[in-house]
Structures are given as C-alpha cells and as structure tokens.
Amino acid sequence: MTVMRDDALSGAELRAFLQGLPGVDQVGAEERAARLGTRSIKASAKAEAIDLAISMVDLTTLEGADTAGKVRALCAKAVRPDPDDSSVPRVAAVCVYPDLVEVAVRALAGSGVGVASVATAFPSGRAPLEARLVDTRAAVAAGAGEIDMVIDRGAFLAGDYLKVFEEIVAVREACGGAHLKVILETGELVTYDNVRRASWLAMRAGADFIKTSTGKVSVAATLPVTLVMLEAVRDFRAVTGRQVGVKPAGGIRTTKDALRYLVLVNETVGPDWLSPRWFRLGASSLLNDLLMQRRKLATGVYSGPDYFTVD
C-alpha cells in the first residue's frame, strides 16, 4: 500500500486513498472478535492480566456536575486504587474537562499518573475550529499531557474528509508536546469500512491514539470495532514505521470485558501494544470490578462493591 505525502494532499487524493482501502469483511470481523472473546486466561496469568488492565485505565469523570472535590478524590484513587493494598498499580491517567485540568495536575503532581482532557467541544465537536483550538491550548497550558478530541462526524459522513483531516492537523499543532487521542465516535460511523477510513485519516493527520467513543452515545466500544481499529494501527505501522495507540471507551464495565480486550490486542497486534503507552481502557466504573476480582484472587473472598469508593 502506498501512502501519499502529507504535504501534497488534496481533497480528491485523500478521498481516493481512503476509499481505496480494503473493505472490511463484516461477518469475518464479528466472528473473529466473538471467537477471541471466548478465550480464557489461565489462572496463573489472570492476576498479571488484571494488574495490566488496571495500569491501562483512563479513570474518567465527564459530567456537568463535576466539582474540584470530586476530581481530587478521583485523583487519589488513581494513584492508590486500593487504599488497603499498596501493590495495586496506579492507573494510566485521569481524564477531566479542560476547566478542571489544573485541579487534576496539582493533585497528581509527582505521581506518574497522566492528566488527560477532553477538548474541542466534547462530546459533539460542533463548534467553530478556532473555539476548539482555544479549548485545546487552554487545557495544555493548564498542564494536560493528553488531549482527547472528537472528529466532526457530520463532515466525515458527508465525505468531506479533507475538512476532518485539516482540523485534526490543526488540533495536533495546538497540542504542542501533549499526546493527541482522536475520538472517532464509531457508534455514529455506521459501517466498519467507515471505522477503518476514519482510523487511517486520524493517523495520517498525526493522532498518537485513536479512540472509539466519547461514552455519550449508546453504542460505544465493541470488540469488532476495536478489532478493525487494531488492524488499522498494525497496517499503518507496517507501511509508515510509526506506532499509534488504541483506546476503546464506553461500556467496558467488568473484568471479563477488560480481559477480552487484552486477548484481542495480543492476538491482533501482538505484545508491542500490551502496555499503557499503546493501549488504554476508557472507563468510569471498570476499575472497581478489577479491584474486586483482584482481591478475590488474592484472598479467595469476594469483597463486593461497598468496599471501594464509587466514582
């Protein structure tokens, strides 16, 4: 596959490139994802897999009622997920709205937990580009090391690929040294072919991660969609030499769900992606289930949700 030079892009060339990508075998993708989803992890490896999943969590609060106190409490949990067990790994990052980034940065200083922020008029993305860039720059200036942006799905579905591409490029520039996660909102893209095209478009525009969902649409992360995105990052690295991360988000609530995604990663792209640097789990309720299952493995006793804080 030939990848055109980014400095020579036109709308027609970008459209031809994206529409020339191989189509996704819907039945095949769904069957493979379902088959991998039934694989079990040996008991001897389960504890290690749970710890790996915990280390990949982006602990998230994205509600209109968020307060500085709630963010500080979430940050404390991110650093020490189980106050009774210092061996539990910290999570990858805490994700908040831009106006709460400073609070998270102060609370997480020196912890090694990253601060991510949704910018660019999350979750709809429906705002003038300049407003979205101001949003991004403000979050980065406040200390965010990761920016989660949403693409203009309306423009993408209308076939205006160049507009989407150029907006990602502009946000990438506004991020400076911060990592850029591009949210495709796959539940609104309708087809797996569109998911593959949007994945390649985002990577070509400079995304460090591609992310399934905002968590605000009823169809969020699914195994087949994540499979298509993993195949895209695998193929992109084979062609360009650049590795891009993947983040399924929304609807991942149980340890069983998380372990299915780890199996999918291992079997599709291999161990190179099995680290928080290249794979994340976007979740608000997953962490507690991982903690409960971890304690059960260690003690043989199922503690139940009342033993952990509610996020």
Automatic annotation (TrEMBL):
Keyword 4Fe-4S among UniProt keywords: no
GO cellular component, one term: cytoplasm
Family annotation (Pfam families): DeoC
Keywords from the UniProt entry: Lyase, Schiff base
EC number: 4.1.2.4
Entries under InterPro entries matching the protein: Aldolase_TIM, DeoC, DeoC/FbaB/LacD_aldolase
Pathway stated in the Swiss-Prot or TrEMBL entry: Carbohydrate degradation; 2-deoxy-D-ribose 1-phosphate degradation; D-glyceraldehyde 3-phosphate and acetaldehyde from 2-deoxy-alpha-D-ribose 1-phosphate: step 2/2
GO molecular function, one term: deoxyribose-phosphate aldolase activity
Known catalytic reactions: 2-deoxy-D-ribose 5-phosphate = D-glyceraldehyde 3-phosphate + acetaldehyde
SUPFAM superfamilies: Aldolase (SSF51569)
EC supergroup of this enzyme: lyase
One GO term (biological process): carbohydrate catabolic process
PANTHER family cross-referenced by the UniProt entry: DEOXYRIBOSE-PHOSPHATE ALDOLASE
Protein name: Deoxyribose-phosphate aldolase
The species this protein was found in: Thermomonospora echinospora
